[in-house]
Every structure is written in structure tokens, then in C-alpha cells.
Amino acid sequence: MSHTSLTSVAFGRPIDSIRDYVAALEARGRLLRIGSMDQDQYEITAFAYRLLERFGAEAAPGFLVERVRIDGQWRDGPVLANLYGSWPDEALLFGVAAINDDQHQMYRAVIDTLVSQLDRSGNWPRIPPVEIPAAQAPCKEVVLTGDAIDIERFAWLKNNPGDAGRYINMGSVFMRDPELGSNVGTYRCQVKGPRKIGVNPEPGQHGWLLLREMQQRGDKVAKVAIAVAPDPMTFCASSTKMAGFREDELEFVGGLRGSPLPVVRCETCDILVPAQSEFIIEGEIPLDQFEAEGPYGEMYGFQGAAKKENFFMNIKAMTHRRNPWVLNSFTGLTWDMPKAPQVSSNFFMYKRLIPGLTGLYSPAGASGVIVISIQKRFPGQGISAGQYIAANPALNKVVIVVDDDVDIMDPGAVLKAIGARWQPSASVLIPQTQMMMPDPSRPTPMLSSKFIIDATRQLPQEGGPKNWPALNRDLLTQGAPGSFDLVDQRWGDYFRNWPGKSRG
Fold first, then answer.
1. Which residues have C-beta within 8 Å of that of residue 209, sequence separation ≥ 6?
2. Beta strands 272-274 and 262-265: pairing type?
3. Which residues of 423-459 are buried (b: 16+ CB within 10 A; e: fewer)?
4. What b/e string do you get for 407-421 counting C-beta neighbours within 10 Å, with b at 16 or more?
5. Which of 122, 142, 215, 285 is the most buried (most CB within 10 A)?
6. Over the stretch 108-155, which tens digit does the pLDDT of each residue have?
7. 76: number of Cβ within 10 Å
8. CATH 2.30.110.10-classified regions of the chain
9. Mean pLDDT value across the chain
10. Closest CA to 65 of 148, 157, 182
11. Which of 422, 424, 435, 429 is nearest to 450 (CA)?
């Protein structure tokens, strides 16, 4: 297997393909290569669990498996996973100039970099894509039509014995209609045959809305193209809510890149797709026929329900690079999309709504939980801030509000604040509100209860003590101001005879 040269990757410049990004990760020691794994024994899935258990969600490296056993056959990959879990990795992707391994520093650096790109209204810059000839597009190196198409021969994984089958779960689904607009979204696709896959936009998602509008207009089929393993910026735009309904996600991709995204026209329709993709799958979704789909392991870590009626696609053409790469999401375990643009946009928006907001963070692997920090100045400020966040119909089921001296990226620090600063009376239960994501605990689709924990120091007007005692660490820094400098200077000496590895 060959890489795109690292010389094409430079800080501050767009990373044009998943191969460029992986090459840059490998240069930083952030990619683990494995020769072969037996997915008939679910070896790759078990490895993903162990990797994150032992390294942690944000420190675990991406990994690449050269060959995979599926249904008794050894298939060439590579199969890649866990490429976007770390903030230093996102710093690499978004052009942060000075990159180190400090998750906290890189979180702040990435968010600052992206927030600076927003205009005064919080809008992302837009640059339309540019069409290039098919001969210049890597995704056109191999063109398959008719009986030559066999989607099953590639190394798509069945993640879990409980899943309905093998899935293409990191594809960007392209829909475009002259009257109704366009959508690029990430929807799982169950492999159902050599020339058939499921397509699963959830009710309320932009792709689902667009298909329903086509149905209501009387269309019999919808032309669709799926880009598998496109460039990271395209996958970011397709996996987040950067664009509104009917807006062109590829213009946002150009804005993130700072240059137009090269696109190429499909073989069987006029849809334009990213030229650097590993695969392009073209086909038609019947709008008057449906098939069963699932079950499938969902993002909350629980198996989702099987669906009796779901969209599917008949494949009409397939193009791909020579020796194409397969990306796989271990849904509910690995973090599989760049999260910085969504976090930056949310922070910018909430900063305008919430007085004193200083930070916003969703812990890796804790879907539905979000932590925010505020500079608290007046009574009711914590609960009010939490209500703004809870109003988001997406993932924010539990909102924890802390003071700005609490490290929101440190679960221990957040729990310490809950233990020491929170009284259960400083809480709000929202009995029923909108919830878009497939939370397994909700009794009714699209609805959920939500909970706000105000773990800020409660003011006397809120029932808190008249005077909070001083923090022990503050007393140390005030009373012995040189103590930390002394320890930092002697850090190497402390560990000189220790057989373990210093974390300094």
C-alpha cells in the first residue's frame, strides 16, 4: 500500500484527501499499522474497545488494518478507524501553527482558530466548489457499471454480532434537486447485495426531508451519490450541522479549506462529488418502495431497533481509486468526525446568548452530556445558562454548569465541582422537550426529558453560604508563590531513578 507524499501536507493549507491526513498523522506517531485481523471473530471491534479503554478516548491513536477476514475470505483493505478523536489531531487538520500533545491547549487553539473565521453573525465563509475533468479525479481511476459492480467484495465491516449485516457507515450521501435544493449528510448504509444498499436518514434530518418532498411532488426515484472516505473537510460538513436545510454544504467545505473544493461529475447523473474520495457509489432510491433495515449499534452504545420500512438504493455505477481505502466507524465508541467546527459554531452562538460563558465541552464517549463554564456574577445565572443549552434539540440531555476555574475537559474536576459546590436543589428538570438523536432511554421518539445541574458556587440569594471558604490550591499559590516553579524546575530529577515513563 502506498501513501500520498507528506510533502503535500503543510500547516495552514487544506488537507486535500484522507490519504494526506493519514500520512500527516503517521508522521506525528498518531497511527498504528496492523497487518491483518479476523473480523469473523470480531477482532477489529474488540481491539477498538481495548484501545480506547487503555489509552482513553482522546489519546488513543488512529489505526489501519491492511487485510481483513470477512465471511471466510481475506480481503485487502486497508480499513481505518478512530482518526478524529484527539484535539492535537484536529489542530493538525485545521492548520494550527504550533502543535503539541496537550489536549487542553489544542482544544483552545483549534476553537480560537475557527471562531476567528466566523463573521459577526456567526456565519462560516463560503467558497463554491470547482469542477475538474474526470481524467484528473482520483476517484475515477476505476469505473464500474452494470454486472461489473460488486459492492460486497470490499472490506465493509459487520461491527457486532447483533448488527443486521455489514455497513458502509462513513459515507457522505449527496442529493441534489434543481427545485428543492441539495443535501450532503452522513447516513449509515447497510450492504444488502452486490448492487443494493440501505440508506438511513433519520426522520427530521435534511436528507429525510428532501426525500419526503420528492415523494410528495410525485417523483418515483431520487438520484443519489455516496462519497466514501472523502477529504476530511467534506466529511466534517456532512456529519455536522454547519449548513442549513437546502444550503450547499460544499460551499462551507471551501470556506473551511480556504480554497474551492475540487469536484467531479458523476457517471450517471449531474451530482458533483469530491474528486479526492476513495469511492463514489451512484444510484437511485425508489420513493415508492421500502425495505427492512437494521438493527445496528447506535451512537449511545446500545443496539438500535430494526426498522420495517426504510429507504434503499439500487447501485447504477461505482467508481473508486486504485486500491481504495475503507473507513469504518465503531459507532458509540470511536469519535469519527472532526468536531471542532460544530463546537466552535456552538460556542460562538451561545457566547452571544449566555452572559459570562467561558467554555463549552462534550466529553468524548458521553453522548447527551455537555459541560459549560461561566464567570458567575448574579443569582440565577447558572440555571439560565443551562436552559439555553438544554433547548438544543440535539445531544444536550444533561447540562452541567460550573465556574470558570473548573477544567471542563477534566471529568474528575467536573465531578469534584458537583460534589463540593452543587446542592440538588440547584437543578431543573425539563419533563418533555425535543430530542433528535436516538437516545435508548427515551420512551417516545423525538421527545426526551432533560436535566440541568448548576454546579457553580451558589450565591446567598440562591441558598448558598454567605462566604465560601478559600480553595486549598489558591492558599498554596498565595502563601508559597514559588512552590510550583520549584517543582517544575526539578521535575526531571524526581523521576531520574523511576522505571516508568514521566508524564512531564
1. 245
2. antiparallel
3. eeebebebeeeebbbbbeeeeeeeebebebbbbbbbb
4. bbbbeeebeebeeeb
5. 285
6. 999 999 999 998 888 889 999 999 999 999 999 999 999 999 999 999
7. 15
8. 130-327
9. 89
10. 157
11. 429
pLDDT digits (tens, 9 = 90+) for 448-475: 788 999 999 999 999 999 998 888 888 8
Whether the CA torsion 18, 208, 198, 441 is positive or negative: it is positive
Q: Strand, coil or helix: what is 223?
A: strand
Cα 217 to the center of its chain, rounded Å: 33
Name the burial class of residue 78, with classes exposed (0-12), middle (13-18) and buried (19+) by CB atoms within 10 angstroms of its CB.
buried
From-to residues of CATH 3.40.1670.10 in the chain: 354-462
Mean pLDDT, range 366-389, rounded to an integer: 92
User: Which residues does residue 130 pair with via DSSP β-bridges, in sequence order?
Assistant: 262
- CATH architecture of the domain with residue range 130-327: Roll (2.30)
Q: How far is CA 47 from CA 8, 34, 44, 300, in A?
A: 31, 11, 5, 19
Residue 119 C-alpha cell reads as 463573521
User: Measured between alpha carbons, how far is 230 from 262 in angstroms, rounded to an integer?
Assistant: 11
* pTM to 2 decimal places: 0.85
b/e map of 194-227 (b: 16 or more CB within 10 Å)? Answer: ebbbbbbbeeebbbbbbbebbeeeebeebbbbbb
In the numeric block, the cell 507524499 is attached to 5
| SS3 per-residue string spanning 287-323 | CCCCEEECCCECCCCCECCCEEEECEEEEEEEEECCC
CATH tag, 354-462: 3.40.1670.10
Which pLDDT belongs to residue 416?
94
Contact indicator for 168, 159 with CB cutoff of 8 Å: no
How distant is the alpha carbon of residue 278 from its chain centre? 19
Q: Which three cell numbers stand for residue 245?
A: 436545510
Amino acid sitting at position 13: R
Taking the C-alpha atoms of residue 100 and residue 28, their distance in angstroms, rounded to an integer, is 10
